[in-house]
Q: What sequence folds into this?
């Protein structure tokens, strides 16, 4: 029994740390911040976490293979605008429009992947370019007056509960694929040493391309969630600064920025901390300037911790 | 060791949260605007401050009330003025009526989704009134509905929601610029000045602030109405898109327009917040001249930001109508408390700011406390 517990603790160290931190923070905030532990606020919080957490799931895959995708917020906005454009201007079906949002995200991610894996372009440059393409596309399709509001049925169906379920499903499925399938293990191999992985017969080109497509798909799902939140889509629904929240959620969750390690579920918990911070600051009436300062401090602290852990692991030869 | 470090990090975060929460507790308001109480910076639309205090501070227990202000951004001086003046006037009204008010201010940083989330946080925080200058007049409609579903009062502050709003999407109170009148009055003054200088308008450049903002649309209507009323309905107009009130975008888009239209001799800008971009483009095109100099482009703009006031004083700008920021706060604070107390209020209250020209700006500055002067350091 104690051997089993030891193994579980050793295998899930990051998860336990994250849960511990969240539990401590939650208890203290429940006792000190008025209205924090109300059902309304907690469901609000989960709804706000969902888009960032879903994009952090995609970012985790990309980081695990040693890549980088900074186009997520722009791809999210572009996909949402394409879908809402179809649903409103084109008089399209709401279900098909929702699928279109996810497909658009996947397609834009696939373009990223193609450029990086097949054309051997630098990930940062490719995804930076995609960021401007996504913003441009969203701005053009939004038109000068913005897209109309969707019928109430769209947001009614994709309500808080459904959004939370989507987040849980995405997290569970993506975590299982990453840790419990051959495909997932190949991602870790590529992230640890791309050359060795290639020599071992892993089709790293196609896997890399597919990984960026998954990241785009996650941005598309986040686009659906955000569209439900405001009942329309706008080019400015995914500010570029949001990428910091996404990447830091993953890194705080223990995903290595250098590739080869990390889990989706821990990245989601990282998103809980990052997004939860905004919510708590609002409840505490803390000025936005302090919020950004504290957020930046926590991110640097977490990055430093991640770097320290990596150095220690390298020393031990893990 | 790692666990200890993680715990320290969490504790630092918690202490920071709690400490900052205490630091930012309302403290009687920012007093940037103290000098304006009673005169409100707009002689035309000024409303007198309420008379003698009603509550006996020694014996009456103050009723604590929480309100929220979901700012769309804090990037411009005027936005700070909106927030600061509102805090000041809420404190003032609260004192008169026996309340103690706590105002929570959030900042969406120009992110339309974050503004919706901020409003949800304010609902969860237990606010009884939410003020909001919406970032997007259509995307805000769902938030207005959510606020009403929670039984909370929604005040559309310094921005209007879309005219498509129906039922629960309609704000309980809208306090906004008389933005159409701002443009109209400013342009009518401009035509007068051109007439006085014996200059006939040849072509007008129109810097359109933001195509998703009702205030920009209203100002466009005001401009067109002024053209019609002055008999210039057929005057050629070249439109310049300025993104979402972005001076650099405005300047970038204006540059080629100036190159293609060197004969343009008059200009309207939805806001002189855009003036830094406009000045750069006009300087580059060799068209930035003071009134009285050869090649002067007659220029009217709304808002009277600090740079706008400077350009008006120097003669680069000829007419302007300010925002009347303080009066927004006066109307919004009084209206919010009236609604809370079950009184009826006029649902849409439009505030016209001070009308100024290059000829009378010095006199105005000497007699009227304009918001642009309060925030000249921004």
A:
């Amino acid at each position: 029994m104690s051997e089993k517990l030891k193994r579980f603790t050793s295998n899930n160290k990051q998860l336990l740390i994250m849960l511990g931190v969240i539990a401590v923070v939650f208890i203290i905030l429940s006792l000190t911040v008025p209205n924090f532990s109300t059902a309304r606020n907690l469901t609000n919080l989960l709804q706000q976490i969902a888009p960032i957490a879903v994009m952090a799931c995609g970012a985790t895959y990309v980081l695990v293979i040693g890549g980088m995708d900074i186009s997520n917020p722009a791809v999210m906005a572009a996909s949402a605008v394409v879908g809402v454009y179809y649903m409103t201007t084109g008089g399209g079906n709401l279900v098909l429009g929702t699928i279109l949002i996810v497909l658009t995200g996947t397609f834009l991610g696939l373009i990223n992947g193609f450029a990086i894996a097949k054309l051997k372009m630098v990930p940062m440059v490719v995804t930076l370019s995609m960021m401007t393409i996504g913003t441009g596309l969203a701005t053009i399709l939004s038109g000068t007056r913005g897209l109309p509001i969707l019928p109430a049925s769209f947001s009614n169906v994709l309500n808080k509960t459904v959004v939370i379920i989507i987040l849980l499903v995405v997290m569970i499925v993506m975590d299982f694929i990453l840790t419990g399938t051959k495909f997932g293990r190949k991602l870790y191999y590529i992230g640890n040493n791309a050359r060795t992985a290639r020599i071992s017969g892993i089709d790293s080109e196609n896997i890399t391309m597919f990984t960026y497509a998954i990241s785009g798909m996650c941005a598309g799902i986040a686009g659906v969630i955000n569209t439900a939140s405001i009942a329309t889509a706008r080019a400015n629904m995914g500010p570029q600064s949001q990428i910091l929240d996404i990447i830091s959620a993953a890194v705080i969750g223990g995903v290595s920025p250098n590739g080869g390690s990390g889990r989706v579920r821990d990245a989601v918990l990282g998103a809980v901390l990052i997004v939860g911070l905004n919510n708590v600051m609002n409840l505490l009436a803390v000025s936005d300037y302090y919020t950004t300062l504290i957020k930046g401090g926590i991110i640097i602290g977490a990055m430093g911790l991640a770097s320290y852990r990596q150095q220690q692991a390298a020393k031990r030869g893990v | 060791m790692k666990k200890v470090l993680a715990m320290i990090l969490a504790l630092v975060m918690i202490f920071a949260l709690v400490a900052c929460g205490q630091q930012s507790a309302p403290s009687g308001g920012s007093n940037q605007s103290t000098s304006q109480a009673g005169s409100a910076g707009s002689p035309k639309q000024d409303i007198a401050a309420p008379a003698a205090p009603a509550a006996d501070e020694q014996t009456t227990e103050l009723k604590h009330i929480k309100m929220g202000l979901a700012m769309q951004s804090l990037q411009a001086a005027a936005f700070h003025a909106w927030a600061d003046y509102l805090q000041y006037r809420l404190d003032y009204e609260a004192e008169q009526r026996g309340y103690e008010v706590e105002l929570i201010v959030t900042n969406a940083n120009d992110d339309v989704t974050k503004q919706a989330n901020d409003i949800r946080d304010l609902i969860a925080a237990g606010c009884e009134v939410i003020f909001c200058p919406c970032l997007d007049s259509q995307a805000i409609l769902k938030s207005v509905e959510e606020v009403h579903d929670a039984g909370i009062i929604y005040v559309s502050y310094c921005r209007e929601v879309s005219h498509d709003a129906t039922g629960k999407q309609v704000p309980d109170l809208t306090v906004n610029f008389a933005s159409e009148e701002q443009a109209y009055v400013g342009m009518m003054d401009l035509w007068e000045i051109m007439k006085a200088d014996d200059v006939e308008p040849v072509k007008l450049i129109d810097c359109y602030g933001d195509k998703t903002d009702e205030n920009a649309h209203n100002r466009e209507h005001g401009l067109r109405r002024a053209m019609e009323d002055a008999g210039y309905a057929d005057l050629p107009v070249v439109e310049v898109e300025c993104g979402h009130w972005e001076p650099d975008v405005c300047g970038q888009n204006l540059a080629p327009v100036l190159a293609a239209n060197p004969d343009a001799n008059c200009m309207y800008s939805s806001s002189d917040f855009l003036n830094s971009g406009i000045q750069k483009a006009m300087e580059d095109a060799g068209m930035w001249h003071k009134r009285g100099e050869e090649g002067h482009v007659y220029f009217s703009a709304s808002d009277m930001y600090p740079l706008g006031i400077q350009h008006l004083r120097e003669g680069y700008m000829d007419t302007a109508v300010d925002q009347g920021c303080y009066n927004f706060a006066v109307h919004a604070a009084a209206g919010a408390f009236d609604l809370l107390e079950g009184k009826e209020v006029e649902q849409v209250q439009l505030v016209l700011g001070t009308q100024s020209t290059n000829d009378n700006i010095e006199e105005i500055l000497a007699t009227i406390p304009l918001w642009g002067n309060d925030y000249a350091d921004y």
